[in-house]
Task: inverse folding
């Protein structure tokens, strides 16, 4: 199955990247879910969690405030004003 | 004679205490510069992502957005000048200010009124001393800039840009900062921040065509949300580069100041030893002359 390449970056640092099955986020219009094969999209994030389900089934939750994300050829770039990770994947995050 | 030695001894003492200060400043700059460079590197993913997104939106859509629209007849400009808070960095601030001065001169010769925005106490001092006006100043932390400051500056500049020119708004925004190329090369740079020049330099041979994005919400609203962030990110990255440059300059300046102090100490030590020798020789001559005089009588 195709996978998403997810990258989360904050203003002053790189937060997380890795392969994922799906991403769900809250835009200013409402919830949106991204699966592999999604059409290119550029959306503005609202306040809320971005939940990434990684390739091995874990979830990474990032609190992303004031940012946007883009989807292009199964590459998801989540760009947030400030992003903090929580959940099990914290240990995997790039320091 | 003894007085001369004492003078040299004092000079040596004061030079070596200065040398200690230079050495300490150099060490501090050296230890901070690594972090400053890391921060420049760490801010790159964000800057790249937002640049990609902004160029994707603005190149695809023929959107008339205030922030991209060029004024036909720009009459007022804003200039943001980034200098340092402290000296002890060689010609760092002076170089930036000289470049800024050239830019101001150029803008004025084009018949534009210029509002200046300053970063760093050195820039503030420069303007205060000459009784020149500036719109706003941000000081503190030029060697470790905070994102909040960049945000404040961004907001101030964007709101000035959005204001009507007749009511004190500006038609264009320039930034003067020092670009950090490497530890040995930093150069003062002038960039025009707004209106956007929608040509991005990041084009390589294998650059993919920008995808045809769908937008959520409408493209105009996306651009509305993106552009201020883009400006903030540009300002922040300029501040980080300026910080790294400041530290690199300080390190270099303090290194050469320390070396000069060592040279001076050497020189003074030689002179002091000379003086001591001369004193001893003179004492001996006097003694021998005295003894001879006694013997002869």
Result:
């Amino acid at each position: 199955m195709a996978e998403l390449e997810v990258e989360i970056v904050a203003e002053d640092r790189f937060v997380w990247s890795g392969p994922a099955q799906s991403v769900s986020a809250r835009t200013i219009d409402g919830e949106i879910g991204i699966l592999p094969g999604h059409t290119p999209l550029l959306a503005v994030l609202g306040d809320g969690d971005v939940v990434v389900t990684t390739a091995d089934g874990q979830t990474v939750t990032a609190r992303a405030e004031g940012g946007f994300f883009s989807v292009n050829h199964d590459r998801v770039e989540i760009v947030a004003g400030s992003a903090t990770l929580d959940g099990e994947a914290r240990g995997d995050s790039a320091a | 004679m003894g007085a001369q030695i004492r003078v040299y001894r004092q000079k040596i003492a004061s030079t070596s205490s200065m040398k200690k200060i230079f050495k300490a400043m150099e060490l501090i700059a050296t230890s901070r510069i690594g972090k400053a460079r890391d921060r420049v590197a760490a801010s790159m993913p964000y800057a790249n992502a937002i640049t990609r997104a902004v160029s994707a939106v603005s190149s695809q859509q023929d959107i008339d957005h205030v922030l991209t629209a060029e004024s036909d007849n720009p009459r007022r400009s804003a200039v943001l000048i980034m200098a340092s808070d402290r000296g002890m960095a060689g010609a760092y601030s002076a170089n930036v200010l000289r470049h800024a001065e050239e830019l101001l001169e150029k803008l004025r010769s084009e018949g534009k009124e210029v509002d200046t925005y300053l970063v760093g106490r050195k820039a503030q001092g420069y303007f205060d001393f000459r009784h020149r006006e500036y719109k706003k100043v941000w000081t503190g932390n030029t060697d470790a800039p905070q994102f909040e400051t960049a945000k404040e500056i961004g907001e101030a500049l964007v709101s000035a840009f959005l204001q009507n020119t007749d009511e004190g708004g500006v038609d264009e925004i320039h930034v003067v900062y020092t670009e950090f190329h490497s530890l040995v090369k930093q150069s003062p740079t002038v960039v025009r921040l707004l209106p956007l020049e929608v040509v991005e330099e990041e084009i390589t041979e294998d650059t993919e065509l920008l995808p045809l994005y769908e937008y959520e919400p409408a493209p105009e609203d996306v651009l509305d949300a993106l552009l201020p962030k883009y400006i903030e990110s540009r300002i922040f990255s300029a501040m980080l580069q300026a910080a790294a440059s400041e530290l690199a300059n300080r390190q270099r300046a303090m290194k050469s100041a320390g070396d000069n102090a060592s040279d001076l100490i050497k020189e003074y030590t030689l002179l002091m030893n000379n003086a001591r020798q001369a004193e001893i020789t003179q004492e001996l001559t006097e003694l021998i002359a005295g003894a001879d005089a006694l013997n002869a009588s």
User: Anything to note?
Assistant: Confidence is low (pLDDT under 50) at residues 88-95 of chain A. Chain A touches chain B through 26 residues (CB under 8 Å). The domain at 4-92 of chain A is CATH 2.60.15.10 (ATP Synthase; domain 1).
